[in-house]
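Hello,

Our lab assistant flagged a job as stuck in the queue for most of the afternoon. It eventually completed. Since we weren't sure the result was trustworthy after the delay, we are filing this so someone can double-check. Below is the sequence as submitted and the structure that was eventually returned. Let us know if re-running is recommended.
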Amino acid sequence: MPVYRDAVYGGETVILENRYLRLEIHKRLTGWGWGELFVVDNNQQYKFMAVLEYLAEADISGFPHPLRLEAKEYKLEKFDDRQELSFEVELQPVDPPSEYLSKDSVLRGTVRFVLPHDKSIIHYEMSLRSECLIYLNYIRGPWLRIGANSFGIKKYDAIFPGVEWVVDDEWSSGTDWFEHPQALRVTPHPYKVAIPVMAISYDGIGIGLSWNPEESILTPWTSIRCPQPVFATPNFIDHRNHHLLGLMYPSARWGMDENYLRAKSPILVRRGVIFPLHAQISVVKGTSLDVILDWVKRNGLPDPGPPRYEWKEALDRIAKAYNTNLWIEGKGWGIRGEGQPIIPDFISYYIEHGTDQEVISGLKEKVAWCKNQKLELTKERSSPLRYPYLSRPLDWILTHPEDSLEIGNQLLKIQTPEGDFPFDPSGRHSTLLQDWANIWRPLGHPGDSAIDLCATASASLILAGRNTGESKFIDAARKTLEFAMRFERPEGGDWWETPLSSPNLLAAGHAAIAYYLGYQEFNDRRYLEKAIRWIRSIIPFTHLWQPADIHMIYNTKPCFCSTSWFLSDWVSKHVQWEVLQIFAKSAKIGIDWAEIDQEIDWDKFQKGVTTAVLRWMIDSKDPEWLTHSEYPLEFIKDGKWDTLFADTFNPVNNTYGGGPIMPELIADNVIILLKKNRDKKSGR
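-- returned structure --
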């Protein structure tokens, strides 16, 4: 007998099954059907995980309520490598039919399930055709109620890439890291979704629902793209004790507002319009992150495409800018009349390997001038943060290795007996944005902890130990690494402006660096596994698809939260400097993720994020770029901002903005790619 309590069983069941899972499709009194998903757990027992509410459903004006698409019969075919279960579906009948549009179904088509013999994935294929002119409110395809009539609202975690990463009893669309209206993200604009897969895990099993984000509705006149993902954990949409993953038409890209579940006004659909939808229900052993990684391994990382400028040209452009418009005479490198005599790493490389001799000569003169300057800025004044020496120790020790002994000793004073480096919002973690946020509510409390605070401190201690030969720093780092083993989600990387416990890309990268350094020091395989896990945690923040009309592949989200509760909503914006910084820091320390984690093509990933950021570079002579710029033309028309890159990209508006950033991070990553290309050509 079926388990689900919200369907009336018609007495028949058909089963698709392999060694990983079993999908039972049941017949209602009115027709086929609904599904129940069972997954083989670690004890080799079937565990009831989810309900497939219907084959499909439509809400059409003129009918009394939404109607399921059901079938009178099914067709089950078995092949050498798969099983296929097909249903010819039409709208369930209404009574009396004479009161409505037609006695015949106004929407009909096919729903098919395909189960490979040796893969833990079910392919869902829907194709519906309008049989007459109708006014459509929505069509729903797969509608997964995970935990219904079983484990309910319990979960380990859930990930909606680019939008949500919630754990334990946290709610999606919650106000943990946002205030309304930004908090509501049940049906976000599809362009805000980084990867077309949603995931929930419980009790060592992860379930994913993925789709083709460029699926097109076909009409005789045009094609309309983008199905709408629906994500609610727990299912606050229906106020039910389970979780919901769903796909539907229309979307917030066309015909529907964000965070609604039906069209703004009924959509006229003429006869013969085809509504296709292809999706996959995947199952893995592990967490929601494992579901996302499974998608990446099945589909591969996408081709980044050709860069806006070839790598050598990009480096030449940046070097030329540092020799001209980004040089402030008598001050150093910078913008807006403010410069510093701090020599970027890439300049030494360019002086040795560059091709523009005039630029090389100019840079040599500027480097010589910088070396003769006395840097009068104190450690406290050299950053917008009030205590950069202690709040950002990894950044500081990488740029000021001569301060290693002092940094190490100061960190030892802060470290707790357990190995923690807790949040100190009135001391070393104090910023103006923290103070502003406190007017509403705190971004974090004194004594709170997060993986980024521990990771940056432990990595700094290891580097201090290496630089000074002091074993006490190495021993202290191990204590912190052990303390931080409890963390699972990357948090705390943007502590100076965002809620401390919110999901964060920078924290994932810092944690990966710290644990790999720990692995090098202590040869502890647990640290290596953690390092790989943390670097892979960057992936849910990364756009691995793009629509036909907007270039945004390999753009990244910095975090799934807002600045100081009411300022920038980072689910709605991309930021590229953080992911570039992680790869630049890794390379500076001697960490090559492509060698460490060979299951993911990290060389392609780094090429992707670097190719992406070239799109962000300001070029006053590029009319195409200017059409996507939020900057006032008078700021950039004289070329003084050329090669700076935008802080933010809005994927819905296709515009670049925010405070412009010096491009040395781009140069650092380009140099890494050039070196890798040179090594490949030489056979290293």
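-- support follow-up --
The delay was a queue issue, not a problem with the job. The result is valid. The chain has two domains: 9-299, 383-540+568-597. The chain has 18 helices and 26 strands.
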